[in-house]
Write a structure and sequence with these properties.
Length: about 120
């Protein structure tokens, strides 16, 4: 009986968290598109996935790009992130590339590449 009570308590706590807004904030569709577009642009322009991987934050679409998103306003979404050889971040290696990309407000086109080169 105690296990059944515990199970229902956990389910109730999860439902309460969702209803009270304790769940993750919603990210707009345009923000998700912008993260994906910026990440894919960097991958394609830095040699492809076999030689280049962007920072983990660029895979964080549920958080709009997390710490990589440095600006979100009328001109669009600007991302600044590092990248390097596959596994660079997980293995604690230094990044080899820094990228700054701005994506349109609707998340459908790159409007500016501010930088894509050696980390500054």
């Amino acid at each position: 009986m105690a296990l059944k009570t515990l199970r229902f308590s956990l389910i109730g706590a999860a439902a309460t968290a969702l209803c009270t807004g304790a769940a993750l904030a919603q990210v707009s569709d345009s923000n998700v598109r912008a993260v994906n577009l910026a990440r894919n642009w960097a991958i394609n322009n830095n040699g492809g996935l076999s030689v280049y991987r962007p920072a983990d934050c660029m895979f964080n679409t549920g958080n709009g790009g997390g710490s990589c998103l440095i600006q979100s306003n009328n001109p669009g979404y600007t991302f600044r992130f590092m990248g390097g050889a596959p596994g660079w971040q997980q293995e604690g290696m230094a990044p080899t590339t820094e990228t700054v990309v701005t994506v349109s407000p609707e998340g459908r086109s790159i409007t500016n590449v501010g930088y894509n080169g050696t980390p500054r």
